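thread: overnight batch results

M.L. [08:02]
morning all. the overnight job finished for the chain we discussed friday. pasting input first so we're all looking at the same thing
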Amino acid sequence: MTGNDEDPVGAGALDRVTWALRRAELAVQTLKERRLRPLGLAASHYTLLISVHSEPGLTGAELARRLNVTPQAVASLVARLESRGQVERREHPRHRHVQELHLTEAGRETLRAADKAIADIELRIIEGLGLKESAQLRGLLDQVADVAREA
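M.L. [08:03]
and the structure it wrote out:
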């Protein structure tokens, strides 16, 4: 940046907390993609599998809202994982036009393997930062999320 009035961004734009968060997110996401690729998964597959595991019976629309993606994106991911036998759709017990999502045994096995890869990434981060700093970072990130939700 040249520092004149015609700069498209403010001074220190690349030093902002939000930019640091984005750089960290991209670095972690890239590492997740690399570690999950040998399992035939993308990070988005892992996210969908762990979401359905944590809340069995989610609908595609609920999942799209939680993941902040379009329903079409979720439908595409579900179709791919369903074709692999990792996710199944079941009719909602009260609303026959609503389809709930559930993991299959193959989906649970895939999630176990994927979660090991993700846990290894977590361990590497903790080793790099230290236990105290990792806990502090987690607390700070929770605060950032709270502040952003309140804004």
